[in-house]
Amino acid sequence: MTSSRAPGRALGLARARARAALPALLLLQAGALVGVARASVEAHLSPECRAFLYRGTAPAGLESPSLRRICQRYGGRARYVTLYDTAGRAPVYSAYTFKRSDGERRANAPWMFEPQLSASSGSREMQPMGRGEASRSLEDAQAVLEDYDDAAGYERGQLNPDEHQADPGDKAATYALTNAVPQAREFRAGPWAEQLHAVRRRLNNYCRGVAYVVTGVTGAGHAIRRQSADRVAVPACMWSAYCCVDFDRSAPYGERHKLPAFAHYGLNDRRNNQVSEMPVGKLEEFLKGSTYVEKSFRIFADDCVPPPPVRP
């Protein structure tokens, strides 16, 4: 179930959990920074990669020594952009362009790793993830398949979801562990999945141009552990926002007032996981007050305000 207004109780609970998560997140980062591979990740995105960002501009106000901006590549093409935390071994956000689709998921897609985070690889394209010895050279800076083997109650949740892509290559590229976070099974299959479908239908029906989407997480309260060590940060909340400045002005009011931009968030929890919809500005206020983003944090350049019409 979704709500167009964030209920006060849910908002308070989300803020409390996210704030409580900060000390644990900082400790996790401090421990994991030792020995992290210095990757050849793009400090300045190429035009091909900036195409996934509204006005070619990444979300502002997210800075940390452990963050790496990755242009996720697959099949000879850039597919989307991820800001990745090598300390928590989890993405902070993925930014992508929505493609009109039927919502079907790709079957039998292999999970992949990001060579750009590995000092031992010269490739810039994601590759199928192996197990055992094949994954040991990767695990300092990113999650591996073994991390999820005993993650009771959690599944790999995509920030750029398969259901929001149409091209087979774009869909396959969403199965990168650098695009996945540990998501509570009940949250992923219930309220979050329902909201993914609601956004897909809205953009399918009423967005005439390009829809830019950014989906991210707040600080982790704990981590998936393997061999007595913290491995992958579990987010306290998940959030998403879209921007489509070229939309159908004759859409029903219930949908039109959620264009050109709108957002939602939900607690990554088995039970208290209702998803709430809200204006993008309200989501930014929530994140500024409850997590480690800076006061300058902004998801979309110019707040996704459509440019004025050109006069003849």
Could you name the key traits of this structure?
alpha+beta; 14 strands; globular; disordered N terminus
Strand tally? 14
Return the string of H and E elements.
EHHEEEEEHEHEHHEEEEHEEH
End-to-end separation: 46 Å
Strand content: 25-35%
Give the mean pLDDT: 84
Q: In terms of quaternary structure, what is this?
A: single chain
What characterizes the major β-sheet? 8 strands, mixed
Structural class: alpha+beta
- The coarse overall form would be globular
The order of strands across the largest sheet is 1-14-13-12-9-4-3-2
Return Rg in Å.
18 Å
Low-confidence stretches: 1-7, 20-40
Count of discrete alpha- or pi-helical segments spanning 4 or more residues: 8
The percent range for helix content is 10-25%
